[in-house]
Amino acid sequence: MTDTTNSASSSIDVYGADWCGDCKRAKAALTRLGAAYTWHNIETEDGAADRAVEISGQKHIPVVLYGDGAFQVEPSATDIEQKLKELGVID
């Protein structure tokens, strides 16, 4: 899915792998909540794995990076929903 938002504060990047269950759940939560995001597959996109580690300081996925500079590692759907509300992306 491509990020179609114009506001930097509402941009979302998700770093993960297609085989990762937590990544699938994070993407499903974002989709269900109506949040646009950019998917970065750490196995096929040059530099994506390094960027995920650079953001989080660890090798766990998914890494969800928000436009305000905050990030979450292996977030639950509830964590994602709370952050989207904080950013004003959803009510």
From TrEMBL:
One of its GO terms (biological process) is cell redox homeostasis. PROSITE patterns: GLUTAREDOXIN_2. InterPro entries: GlrX_actino, Glutaredoxin, Grx-like_ET, Thioredoxin-like_sf. SUPFAM superfamilies: Thioredoxin-like. Residues 14-67 form the Glutaredoxin domain. One of its GO terms (molecular function) is electron transfer activity. This is Glutaredoxin-like protein.
